[in-house]
Amino acid sequence: MAAYKVKLTTRAKPVKVKGRTILAIEPEDYTKEQVKALRAAGYTVLGYLSIGSVSNERPYYKRLEPYRLSRLPDWKHEWYLDLREEEARKWCVERAKEIKDLGCVGWWIDNTDLLEYHDSREMYAAITTVLQDIKAACGGGYIMINGGQEYLDRLMDADPKHEGFPWINGVTQEEVYSRIKSYSGKGRFGTQTKKQHEEYKKHMRRVKRHKMETFLLEYTESKTLIKRIKAFCKTYGMTGYYIAADVNL
Fold it and tell me: Domains plus CATH for the chain?
């Protein structure tokens, strides 16, 4: 299973959603005034927050370095974060507060796929605890999970009545139709394998049934593929999508 790592820059990532547009931004690149202006313009602004990893390019790296686990595939400067450690969980909540104080209405949560590489009951519980603590500490807010299929599958397995989860509002799945073949430069893209494509489509339809908003994040310039992506979203009632021509969003 791939690691769903998306590097956001000052070029905010827009996702059109039924009359509103969501922007997932890199908080370190914005001021309160800029975020306020984006919201005044009608955007729903989410701040990027990786609860499952730490990069040595981040200013808070030294604090989290003791809690590193294995290195992320395809991202040589980044390691998975051990959320079983109280200090790591505490940092996640503190960072979430900073993003909320910046003016963001919620968080675009990355690297919950941590569970796929460091699987245990304790890690599964720790991810849920962090997300719930963020909501509680910040008085609510919109949480969008990027990827994290293993974690989400376990949540949904325990939710046979499709009641949903108050600590998760939406889910983004990358590469449902497209596939990143190389991360070099702007990236090199192709078409997702048939087996993985069908698995992701099934997964996202299931996510929708469990009362979470659903988003696709694709990497392609193929007009044919773009047409198929839009048709899928319309047919199955996906909440929104974003199509990129550059892996460095």
Answer: 13-244 (3.20.20.70)
Predicted TM-score (pTM) above 0.85: yes
Query: Strand ranges (DSSP E) for the chain?
Result: 13-17, 20-25, 43-50, 53-55, 68-71, 78-81, 106-110, 142-146, 170-174, 178-182, 188-191, 213-219, 240-244
Residue by residue, pLDDT tens for the chain (249 residues) are 222 223 333 344 555 555 678 899 999 999 999 999 999 998 999 999 999 999 999 999 999 999 999 999 878 899 999 999 999 999 999 999 999 999 999 999 999 999 999 999 999 999 999 999 999 999 999 999 999 999 999 999 999 999 999 999 999 999 999 998 887 777 789 999 999 999 999 999 999 999 999 999 999 999 999 999 999 999 999 998 888 887 776
